[in-house]
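User: For my dataset I need records formatted as: sequence, then structure tokens, nothing else. Please produce one.
Assistant:
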Amino acid sequence: MSAKNQNSSVTYTGGCHCGAVRFQVVVDEHKAVNCNCSICHKKGFLHLIVPQNQFTLLQGADMLTTYTFNTGVAQHKFCRICGIHSFYIPRSHPDCIDVNIKCLDGDVVSNFEIEDFDGANWEQNIEKLIN
């Protein structure tokens, strides 16, 4: 199923590498963002930002650790066992959850249309991401 024919909600499950953290996410729009900022580039994060009510942490809350930097608004969550960053609270949308589509179960990245975002120049480009 390609991103072009995704016009209804789909529920995905996913998690970290070791399986300690598991989640479920409901996707209405199969669009993701590839950001080139310092942390996203190093993590290889492909962003799917969803409202909090479309994300459910199924297990592993006690296995999560949070990393913050710069403004401290973004809450980068990662598994304290395997270190995988499967989701976080983004600075751009602090009332949402940002899921790494690479952490969804199965080979589903091709279901998403992926758009590049120049996060290395975040202040000059953030309007493109929130509009």
